[in-house]
Amino acid sequence: MALQVTQEAIGAFVDERRDDLIGLACDLVAARTPNPPGDVTKAAAIVVDRLHALGIEKVEIPAANALRPNVVARVPGRGGGPTLLLNGHLDTKDPGPAADWDTSPWEPSIANGMLVGVGSADMKGAIAAMVYAGLAVAEAGARGTLVLAFTADEESGGPYGPGWLADQGLLEADACVIGEPSGIRRDWEAIRLVSRGAAIFTIRVRGTQMHSSLSDQFASVNASVEMARLMVRMAAAGNRFLTYEPHQLVERGPTVNIGLTAAAGVGYGILAGHAEFVSEVRTLPGMTAAGVEEDLRRLLAKLVSEQLSLEAELELEFWAPATEISSDHPIVRALRFAAENVLERPVPLGGFPGGTDAPHFDRAGIPTVPSFGPGLLTVAHRPNEAISVESVVEAAKIYALAACRYLDA
After folding, report:
1. Out of 27, 122, 139, 154, which one is annotated catalytic?
2. Domain edge (last residue) among 251, 286, 320
3. Active site annotation includes 154
4. 249-260, pLDDT tens digit by residue?
5. Reduced to 3 DSSP states, what percent helix, strand and coil does the chain have, rounded to the nearest 5?
6. pTM of this prediction exceeds 0.70
């Protein structure tokens, strides 16, 4: 008998499988997938085995790199409905020094209702929830087709994940939901319709490489010192030098981070003749690579003209555009309905502060919600990453109810 598509029926269905759902999340956390090196084979195998065990047999493992496979599962519908894609990435950041963690980052533990371990919030809890949401949709027998795409490489830009899948024409859907953690101060803070883009750039500073003992006798420029002065002045400029249209879902505008990495000099006894630092701009919809680069070069030229001993050049190293989905899109309406029913409160709309894989899906012509998932972005990429166990269970219910509503529309 098909599962009845009501909040109560789906809730009961997920609750009956709560232990298995959380067990899958724990297994995924224990599967080490730091990027670099980006090996997600163990996590992919865990997902494939669980999908097959749950009776979801249409599973493919497309890969351009043997260590970075993608898992794509299909839950066929009765016919005549749209196709919805649920996406999560299998890789994580490196957890950093184990000494900074209260427990081993690779040994998932549950305490005070929280699942602790690297990738728990970003975003293996969401992947586990999507697997069980897929089972619920299969049992419900929706009209449309649900696709579960668990991909590699999000933490390094997606070249072997959705970027490659898009290039190969392997991504087809009418809408997509990415389960990135959508909370900042509390779980389920907003349905994030905007994914900010990223412009990553390097500024190289030239100085005078010479014997450092002679720097007080001959005209010289210490590239390290000039770089430091320039970094401080660029940081003080904030985002005021950028050209952009304000966006109501991203009230703070673009974010500029100066000096994410820095390097200079050769070593002891040598005045630094070269220094460089990497920085970023988190962009809004409508901003372009050419526009951001022009703004950066204009600012650099101004600062160089005021800092006469400075010689510097800029190179834009990486660009990913911002994306946005309409608040009127049917998948957004379905998510709002499901979230309000499961959480018993309305969930507002918002923008995601970081970047996601949404540009790859957008490039494939798939309108994408870049972030609606359990967990807090504020705990990602830091020691003692954790996620509320209850939020993982809520995620499975929300995804299942939203998918059924969308696929039967």
Report:
1. 154
2. 320
3. yes
4. 999 999 999 999
5. 35, 25, 40
6. yes
